[in-house]
Amino acid sequence: MPRKRSILDVLITLPWWFNLVLAGIVYAGLKYYLPTIEFISPAFQSLIATFSRLAGLFACLFVFTAAISAYHAWRKGELLDRQTSVKSINALPWKDFEYLVGEAFRRQGYKVQDNTGSGADGGIDLVLEKDGQRTLVQCKNWRTSRVSVSTVRELYGVVTAEGAAAGILVCSGRYTKDAVEFAQGKALTLIDGLALARLIGEVQTAPKIKTEPTGTACPVCQSPMVLRTVRRGKQAGKRFWGCSKFPECRGTRDAS
Structure pTM? Predict the structure, then answer.
């Protein structure tokens, strides 16, 4: 199970302007509305008076979280836009790698929930929501080894337990043959370092990513491709490379 998030975790992942709106509501409610409520008990009346005097302090707490939220949003955007290659991605600390992946999906139109703390995440680093579908993402910034089948099995177990629509595993390197084969026929997408670099290049404000030519570039629009699985028909279970811009682009390549 993913770790439980504190109220502060939730607030700093909200848009900065939403926190400012909350600050205004809290201030107005405590300063002007609460004092209009009459209580028989003198203790309650005294408590209301205290809250009213501290309205500015309570509002400042939300202004503070708004500032943190704005900084995080700026930093994640700057982190993505400055990437230049697979090498620069590999050099990132593990937490920045998660932020990078989250920002890439956010710019694709997903609502992204980060694992904002340093505690256990239960195998989930990001939760994506789009078109009513919830997708769980696990990030592996491993530089010297390929991601093995055990990691893919772990993600699949979490996706099944959580009842999510799908799972995405993102790494900065590559996957073993067993890992790719295990993902076949399941609601899992594997994105390796090269595919991630191309994906980032597609959503950068000013494209800077440089990658070597690869068979995982879409033959139609040259966008990055991701491994997908045929769900229905005679070829159900077969793996293929599908364009990351699907359904706008329907370019495919064989995964063999």
Answer: 0.69
- Of the candidates 138, 200, 182, 201, the one whose C-alpha atom is nearest the C-alpha of residue 164 is 138
**Separation CA 63–CA 59 (nearest Å):** 6
Q: Which domains does the chain have, with CATH numbers?
A: 7-75 (no CATH), 93-254 (3.40.1350.10)
Q: How far apart are CA 126 and CA 121, in angstroms?
A: 9
Q: What is the pLDDT of residues 201-238, one digit of tens each?
A: 999 998 888 755 444 666 566 567 777 888 777 778 78
* Rounded Cα distance, 119 and 100, in Å: 19
Strand 188-191 relative to strand 166-171, pairing: parallel
Residues near 29 by beta carbon (within 8 Å), at least 6 away in sequence: none
Residue 80 DSSP one-character state = H
**Using an 8 Å Cβ cutoff, are 106 and 59 in contact?**
no
- What is the pLDDT confidence band of residue 37, given thresholds at 50, 70 and 90? confident
A 10 A CB-CB count for 119 gives 10
Phi/psi region, residue 180 (left: phi>0; alpha: psi -120 to 50; beta: rest), is alpha
Task: Read off the tokens for 85.
Answer: 């290659």
What is the mean pLDDT of the segment spanning 244-253? Answer: 75
Pairing between β-strand 133-140 and β-strand 239-243 as defined by DSSP bridges? unpaired
